[in-house]
Design a protein that fits this description.
It is a single chain. The chain has 164 residues and is an alpha+beta fold. The chain has a single domain, classed as Gcn5-related N-acetyltransferase (GNAT) (Aminopeptidase, 3-Layer(aba) Sandwich), CATH 3.40.630.30. The protein is 28% helix and 33% strand. The protein has five helices and seven strands, in the order E-H-H-H-E-E-E-H-E-H-E-E. Strands 1-2-3-4 form a four-stranded antiparallel β-sheet. A three-stranded antiparallel β-sheet has the order 5-7-6. The protein is globular. It starts with a strand and ends in a 7-residue tail after the last strand. The mean pLDDT is 95.
């Protein structure tokens, strides 16, 4: 498959909003959103994110992600990672992550790249581990039913050698 990507624009928002097929998937992608995801929610969060990126197959949007920074943290975080359910399990999630990691490396030259994943999102958690991300902290977030869900914070560290 020939996965392509480009910077997302406001014309892409409606297609992105259709990617989370249920409340649980939206919670994994964007825990603060109300289901169903809509244009206004995406537009608001888009203002606080960097390098919003859509992923396409045959010119159809099948995935989305972006980069953000947490207060008091200089390292980039990869967020809002979503892949259309029809394309999961084909290695495209790893491709999306590689693109986002490369964007973060090129644009920010970080010591590490961070992300968060819910423990119950097992396949994605295993993907991140297989890519070298390591757990460093655990938090809890309430889901749509008011139930605490374990959120695992992970980071991928880089050791750059400087030739001075």
């Amino acid at each position: 498959m020939n996965l392509q990507y480009r910077t997302a624009n406001k014309n892409d928002f409606l297609s992105i909003c259709k990617l989370p097929e249920n409340k649980q998937v939206l919670f994994y992608m964007f825990p603060n959103a109300k289901y169903p995801l809509d244009y206004e929610q995406l537009k608001e969060t888009h203002k606080k994110r960097y390098f919003p990126t859509v992923f396409l197959l045959n010119e159809k949007i099948i995935g989305y992600s972006n980069i953000y920074f947490m207060p008091n943290d200089d390292e980039p975080h990869i967020g809002h990672v979503i892949l259309d359910k029809k394309y999961r399990g084909m290695g495209l999630g790893k491709e999306i992550m590689m693109v986002m990691i490369n964007i973060a490396l090129k644009e920010f030259i970080p010591k590490e790249i961070k992300l968060a994943v819910f423990e119950t999102n097992k396949n994605v958690y295993e993907l991140y581990k297989s890519m070298g991300f390591k757990s460093y902290e655990t938090k809890y977030r309430k889901d749509y039913n008011g139930k605490n869900q374990k959120l695992i914070l992970m980071k991928l560290e880089f050791n750059f050698l400087l030739n001075i």
